Amino acid sequence: MSAFFVPTVHTLAELRERVAQWRARGERVGFVPTMGALHEGHLSLVEEARRRARRVLVSVFVNPTQFGAGEDFDRYPRTLADDVEKLANVAADLCYAPAVEEMYPPGFSTTVAVGGPAVADLEDHFRPTHFSGVALVVAKLLNQADCDVAVFGEKDYQQLLVIKRLARDLDLRAEIVGAPTLREADGLAMSSRNIYLTAEERRIAPVLHRALTEAARRIADGEPIGHVMGEAREQVAAEGFLIDYLEARHAETLARVARRHDGPIRLLGAAKLGATRLIDNIAVESAQ
């Protein structure tokens, strides 16, 4: 057990009181929004925020507005006590864990409409209400936290671009920082949903990352994008994945790309393995 104690607050009034105390001392505030079930990937975001700010706040809130019909909101892991213990191990300063009623009180009726990278025919095609829910809760949390910098993982790459656009368009004060995806030793991107994988599925799961990595290398070497991505899809499907998408897109706009020099390229994939949906992405390195 860590000797460091992380206080937890559950109301906006408590949160604002704590942040106001930091601000009164001129302390820079970093923020890491999460849905809990914390793993080493989340903790790496806390460490990145610590490099950029004197104080680090972490929220734990399973946001109902970003889950669609039939998704796993009810069974999404909720492990607040364990999460707070892990936050103590990386010396976070405060955990904010509001109830749904605190975030969306009776009569709440505001929504956020999103465009740009939120309508790229990737995650939005399969989860059409997801990014409006993400944008709503992130806008609220950034306002509540009154932070200088907020750190998000690159694993949810489309989400990261949506949040960057949100902050720019709404003139939010926070600098939005993307942090690299943390991976298991075999390359699987760390995710709270990995606990749903069976032992056999866990053995197969790194195939998605390996296929993206190989495709990125081949595209960087000048092979045709369409041919390379087609073979990557075949490789992933042959291992039993049901592919939602496996595509090469412009890394800044998520527009489709046909040639290596159409701009910086990001490869993005989402596929189901059994009952678990995995997502991943990787950059195509620039030619030397």
From TrEMBL:
What are the recorded Gene Ontology BP terms?
Answer: pantothenate biosynthetic process
Using the record, list the residue span of the signal peptide; answer none if the entry has no such feature.
none
This entry's Gene Ontology molecular function terms read:
ATP binding; pantoate-beta-alanine ligase activity
Q: Which UniProt keywords apply?
A: ATP-binding, Cytoplasm, Ligase, Nucleotide-binding, Pantothenate biosynthesis
What is the E.C. number?
A: 6.3.2.1
Q: Main subcellular localization, coarse class?
A: cytoplasm
Annotated pathway: Cofactor biosynthesis; (R)-pantothenate biosynthesis; (R)-pantothenate from (R)-pantoate and beta-alanine: step 1/1
* Superkingdom of the organism of origin: Bacteria
Q: Catalytic residues?
A: 42
**Catalysis: reaction(s):** (R)-pantoate + beta-alanine + ATP = (R)-pantothenate + AMP + diphosphate + H(+)
Residues recorded as binding ATP, renumbered to this chain, are 35-42, 153-156, 182, 190-193
- Is ATP-binding set as a keyword in this record? yes
Q: Which residues bind beta-alanine?
A: 66
Its subcellular locations are: Cytoplasm
> Can you name a GO cellular component term?
cytosol
> At which positions is (R)-pantoate bound?
66, 159
Query: Which InterPro entries does the annotation name?
Result: Cyt_trans-like, Pantoate_ligase, Pantoate_ligase_C, Rossmann-like_a/b/a_fold
Spell out the subunit comment.
Homodimer.
NCBIfam families in the record, alphabetically?
cyt_tran_rel (TIGR00125), panC (TIGR00018)
Q: Relay the record's extra comment.
A: The reaction proceeds by a bi uni uni bi ping pong mechanism.
In UniProt terms, what function does this protein have?
Answer: Catalyzes the condensation of pantoate with beta-alanine in an ATP-dependent reaction via a pantoyl-adenylate intermediate.
Family designation: Belongs to the pantothenate synthetase family.
What is the designated name of this protein? Pantothenate synthetase
The species this protein was found in: Methylosinus sporium
